[in-house]
């Protein structure tokens, strides 16, 4: 089984904030996104790039995945941002407002033509109606898992999606759920990770927890965060519960019994369990093992 890369907590850090950059290496987030786009004013883009180059040269964060979010590649800002990506070589570059396969092709071409190692992946932000509609095509064309490309993960940008569709910010996200699930399906079809968008009110712990639980139920791997106070909650709610782990071990043990040899379906405490449940159980146990290795057992 391939090594599991955790993405329960995906924290955005403005690249213009030097204090936040320095602190980022000490935070228990699975992924840090260093933001050159929305969180940085136009007149400070250059300063933000310099901050990132300094950080990766002198104090590259260890023990977590690093992602740089750039500006759109059809802008001068985006092209300059890619120069920083090539210099810093983070684990991934996050493309904003991905709408077509061509957006992926442009980023991939820059990385390939400049000799970026294949370990530098691409993450795609789907935050427009067109991006969500094209999710499957985008995922299938450049999947690192299945198509030999660099695309590793998709993130749903819920704020922009609401803005462009007119969907209201309801607590249970009733009208967003079909679109969220469309992205989850596209990601799973092509072996990608998939991250839910931000919860804006970081002072509303109960609301954040409820949305994490909803995200987990829909199949998301984790949540994009805007504040360090959200990390612990995301890590907890996107980790297997004790009950789920106990159930997983019971399924694995049942299929390991001699009498289950060659069977595709077994009886476990009066209910039918199939080998697909065994695969799910093994994935859950592997996820728990990866979490334990971070020292963040829940």
TrEMBL record:
Highest classification ranks of the organism: Bacteria, Pseudomonadati, Pseudomonadota, Alphaproteobacteria, Hyphomicrobiales
GO MF annotations in UniProt: lyase activity; magnesium ion binding
Residues annotated as binding substrate: 69, 127
Coiled coil ranges: none
Entry keyword set: Lyase, Magnesium, Metal-binding
Positions with a binding annotation for Mg(2+): 127, 160
GO terms of biological process kind: oxaloacetate metabolic process
Family: Belongs to the HpcH/HpaI aldolase family.
HpcH/HpaI aldolase/citrate lyase domain mapped to chain residues: 8-228
InterPro entries for this protein: Aldolase/citrate-lyase_domain, Citrate_lyase_beta/mcl1/mcl2, Pyrv/PenolPyrv_kinase-like_dom, Pyrv_kinase-like_dom_sf
Signal peptide: none
Cofactor section: Mg(2+)
Name of this protein: Citrate lyase subunit beta/citryl-CoA lyase
Organism: Martelella mediterranea
């Amino acid at each position: 089984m391939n090594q599991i890369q955790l993405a329960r907590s995906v924290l955005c850090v403005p690249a213009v904030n030097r204090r936040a950059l320095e602190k980022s290496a000490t935070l228990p987030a699975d992924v840090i996104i260093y933001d050159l786009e929305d969180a940085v004013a136009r007149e400070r883009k250059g300063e933000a790039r310099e901050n990132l180059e300094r950080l990766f040269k002198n104090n590259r964060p260890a023990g977590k995945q690093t992602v740089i979010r750039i500006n759109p590649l059809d802008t001068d800002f985006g092209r300059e941002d890619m120069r920083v990506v090539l210099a810093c070589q983070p684990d991934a570059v996050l493309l904003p407002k991905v709408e077509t396969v061509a957006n992926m092709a442009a980023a991939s071409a820059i990385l390939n033509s400049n000799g970026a190692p294949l370990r530098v992946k691409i993450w795609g932000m789907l935050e427009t109606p067109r991006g969500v509609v094209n999710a499957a095509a985008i995922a299938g064309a450049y999947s690192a898992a299945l198509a030999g490309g660099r695309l590793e993960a998709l993130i749903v940008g819920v704020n922009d999606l609401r803005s462009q569709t007119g969907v209201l910010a309801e607590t249970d996200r009733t009208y967003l759920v079909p679109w969220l699930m469309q992205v989850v399906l596209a990601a799973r079809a092509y072996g990608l990770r998939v991250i839910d968008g931000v919860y804006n009110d970081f002072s509303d712990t109960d609301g954040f927890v409820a949305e994490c639980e909803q995200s987990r139920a829909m199949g998301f791997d984790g949540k994009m965060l805007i504040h360090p106070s959200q990390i612990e909650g995301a890590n907890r709610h996107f980790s297997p519960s004790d009950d789920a782990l106990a159930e997983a071990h019971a399924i694995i043990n049942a299929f390991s019994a001699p009498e289950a040899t060659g069977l595709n379906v077994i009886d476990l405490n009066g209910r039918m369990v199939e080998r697909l449940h065994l695969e799910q159980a093994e994935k859950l146990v592997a996820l728990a093992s990866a979490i334990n290795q971070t020292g963040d057992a829940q």
